[in-house]
Design the sequence.
């Protein structure tokens, strides 16, 4: 059975929170959160940012603490590492979601519930 939209929304929030907790730099554009880059990194559909109140609040809080980041690396070095950093961040977020799901399933199995 496919997860409900509400469950997918909660997973998106969990991915973003795990990604932020891991200490990754929030992508910015003109001093604000670059929503498109953030969604690509985390594998979240961009329209979810408008429809999910929890994500909307998280993004608003990130925008509130926005301060333009000055690049300290040369552009060629930043271009080479950027896709790798995005992939690493996406994998960390996915790992956090999978670990949470594993805990849930382990709890259900421990209670003797059948999973289908």
Sequence:
């Amino acid at each position: 059975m496919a997860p409900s939209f509400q469950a997918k929304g909660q997973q998106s929030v969990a991915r973003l929170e795990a990604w932020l907790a891991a200490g990754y730099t929030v992508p910015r554009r003109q001093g604000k959160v670059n929503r498109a880059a953030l969604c690509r990194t985390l594998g979240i559909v961009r329209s979810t940012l408008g429809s999910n109140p929890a994500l909307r609040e998280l993004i608003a809080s990130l925008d509130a603490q926005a301060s333009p980041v000055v690049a300290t690396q040369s552009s060629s070095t930043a271009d080479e590492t950027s896709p790798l950093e995005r992939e690493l961040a996406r994998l960390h977020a996915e790992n956090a979601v999978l670990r949470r799901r594993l805990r849930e399933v382990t709890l259900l199995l421990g209670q003797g519930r059948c999973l289908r």
